[in-house]
Amino acid sequence: MIGWLVRPILRAVSPTKKPLGVILLAALCFCGAALLFCIAVIAATHPDVLLRSHFIDPELRQNIRLLRVARLAVFAPTMACLSFVVGIGLLLLKNWARWILILITGISAARRVMALILVPIVAPEIKLTLTPAFGMAILANAAIVYYLTRANVKRVFEEP
């Protein structure tokens, strides 16, 4: 019944000359898809859990509640599906999956750097602090883009 879904995954994990980094990135995509799916389920069933935030003024919380839940209800399942498809594409060594992952991680790193630069200028009332997790996320995104653009990794994806 679900053989059309399982067969490509089993073929993808068969022993070939896949770089370990590509396998780890595919596993990370699958974990991200599962996490995003859980967030989507929580957003659909218990939106109040996700909306509790100490950083949002209680008066504004009522106004943005529906917008945040609607955005999460659309964004999380969409990104979960995309992440799952990219993970399968990476295991199958499809070049389109490599490019999508480069694009997503590059945008993510650029967004974080721009937030770090622009938030103090545009909204000085928001105190944005550079935490170790924030810096590590930027470095991890840059490392993923660097790894996927290396010549030996490109060559593996471009082989027929």
Description:
The chain has 160 residues and is mainly alpha-helical. It has two domains: 1-92, no CATH class; 94-160. It has helices spanning 3-12, 20-45, 47-51, 58-91, 95-122, 132-148, 151-158. The model has no long low-confidence stretch (mean pLDDT 81).
Summarize the structure.
This protein is mainly alpha-helical and 160 residues long.
Features:
single chain, 160 residues, mainly alpha, 2 domains, 80% helix
Q: Uncertain regions: pLDDT < 50 for 5+ in a row?
A: none
As for the number of domains, it is 2
Biggest β-sheet: count, sense, barrel? none
Instruction: Give me the number of helical elements.
Output: 7
Structural shape? flat
Task: Summarize the amount of helix as a percent range.
Answer: over 70%
- Rg, rounded, reads 19 Å
Question: What are the SSEs and their pairings?
Answer:
Blueprint: H1 3-12, H2 20-45, H3 47-51, H4 58-91, H5 95-122, H6 132-148, H7 151-158
Helix pairs in contact: 2-4, 4-5, 5-6
